[in-house]
């Protein structure tokens, strides 16, 4: 397949490389020329614009920061929609607002182009080894056409519902992860101030009910004080803003998400927005005047 790929950042670049490894031709575009060159070096084709990607590819994948970036890559002058024709498809793998996904699907459908929202979880290491989890929203028949393509990047691909359902699932994931990291910071702070080594607490409880993938992946970073990303706080703030807008839009109260959001906002105000989201534990260190390392 000729697969267009727009957005070759932390996640997009290794995902595009996994598509190439499976034998497809990637037509690559990003604002950063160096990222395109890496894909070309691995056998890909450089495009000069989103429009060229749309013209040359039968399916276009986007992996960009947020809704406005996807809108711009698809619909601005020179964007992919100008090159797309009837029967082609856009698969947006960015984590964006579900209402924006539905809007993009409608606008593409007017020119006969299909759309799937297919955000991912797993982070950079899993993007590199092709084991991300993909949650897909869209029409069953369109999904069936591209399921194998999605599996070249992922160990799990799940169709969860119609367009927008992928991003609603991703928001649920991001709410659970944020609140979990905050719980780790809070509980480890209690242990530290009460005179028990937080690392021993982790070893003792990780196999019990409190254990989780978040606990296993983030505790080590917290104990090392190593908050290099990973997943940046500024991107998690974007996800929680989308989660709060969506939950308020459907009349659901999300108090824990709001608290986690304010903690991250306060870290951003202190210049920590580019730290890994495990840096939520830094906030507990600051307000409690302690160190978890
Ligand atoms: P990133 O900032 O590293 O990459 C985004 C890329 O898009 C950049 O290379 C940028 O130059 C490019 N770009 C932006 N607008 C463009 C446009 N209009 N045309 C062409 N290129 C454009 O971001 P990332 O970490 O790869 O994340 C991408 C998405 O995946 C986000 O929605 C994020 O929330 C989600 N996500 C990230 C992770 C993670 O661990 N980093 C994990 C799961 C999901």
From TrEMBL:
Keywords: NAD, Oxidoreductase
EC numbers: 1.1.1.60
Top-rank lineage group of the source organism: Bacteria
GO biological process annotation, one example: glyoxylate metabolic process
Enzyme class, broadest EC rank: oxidoreductase
Start and end residues of each 3-hydroxyisobutyrate dehydrogenase-like NAD-binding domain: 164-283
Boundaries of every 6-phosphogluconate dehydrogenase NADP-binding domain copy: 2-161
Catalytic residues, chain numbering: 170
Gene Ontology molecular function, alphabetical: 2-hydroxy-3-oxopropionate reductase activity; NAD binding; NADP binding
Annotated InterPro entries: 3-OH-isobutyrate_DH-rel_CS (IPR002204), 6-PGluconate_DH-like_C_sf (IPR008927), 6PGD_dom2 (IPR013328), 6PGDH_NADP-bd (IPR006115), HIBADH-like_NADP-bd (IPR029154), HIBADH-related (IPR015815), NAD(P)-bd_dom_sf (IPR036291), Tartro_sem_red (IPR006398)
Cross-referenced NCBIfam families: PRK11559.1, tartro_sem_red
Similarity field: Belongs to the HIBADH-related family.
Identification of the protein by name: Tartronate semialdehyde reductase
Species for this entry: Coriobacterium glomerans (strain ATCC 49209 / DSM 20642 / JCM 10262 / PW2)
Native organism taxonomy: Bacteria, Bacillati, Actinomycetota, Coriobacteriia, Coriobacteriales
């Amino acid at each position: 397949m000729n697969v267009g790929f727009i957005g070759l950042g932390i996640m997009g670049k290794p995902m595009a490389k996994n598509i190439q490894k499976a034998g497809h031709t990637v037509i690559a575009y990003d604002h950063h020329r160096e990222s395109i060159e890496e894909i070309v070096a691995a056998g890909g084709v450089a495009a000069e614009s989103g429009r060229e990607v749309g013209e040359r590819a039968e399916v276009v994948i986007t992996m960009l920061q947020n809704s406005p970036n996807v809108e711009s890559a698809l619909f601005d002058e020179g964007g992919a929609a100008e090159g797309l024709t009837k029967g082609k498809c856009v698969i947006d793998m960015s984590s964006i607002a579900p209402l924006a996904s539905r809007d993009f699907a409608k606008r593409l459908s007017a020119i006969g182009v299909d759309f799937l929202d297919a955000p991912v979880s797993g982070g950079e290491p899993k993007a590199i080894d092709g084991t991300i989890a993909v949650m897909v929203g869209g029409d069953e028949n369109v999904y069936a056409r591209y399921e194998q393509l999605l599996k070249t990047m992922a160990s799990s691909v799940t169709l969860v519902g119609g367009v927008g359902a992928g991003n609603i699932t991703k928001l649920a994931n991001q709410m659970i992860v944020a609140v979990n990291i905050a719980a780790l910071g809070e509980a480890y702070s209690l242990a530290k101030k009460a005179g028990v080594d937080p690392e021993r607490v982790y070893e003792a409880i990780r196999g019990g009910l409190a254990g989780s993938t978040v606990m296993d992946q983030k505790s080590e970073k917290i104990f090392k004080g190593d908050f290099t990303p990973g997943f940046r706080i500024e991107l998690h703030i974007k996800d929680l803003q989308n989660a709060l807008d969506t939950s308020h839009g459907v009349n659901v109260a999300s108090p824990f998400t709001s608290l986690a959001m304010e903690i991250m906002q306060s870290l951003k105000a202190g210049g920590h927005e580019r730290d890994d989201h495990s840096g939520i534990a830094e906030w507990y260190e600051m307000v409690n005047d302690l160190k978890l390392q």
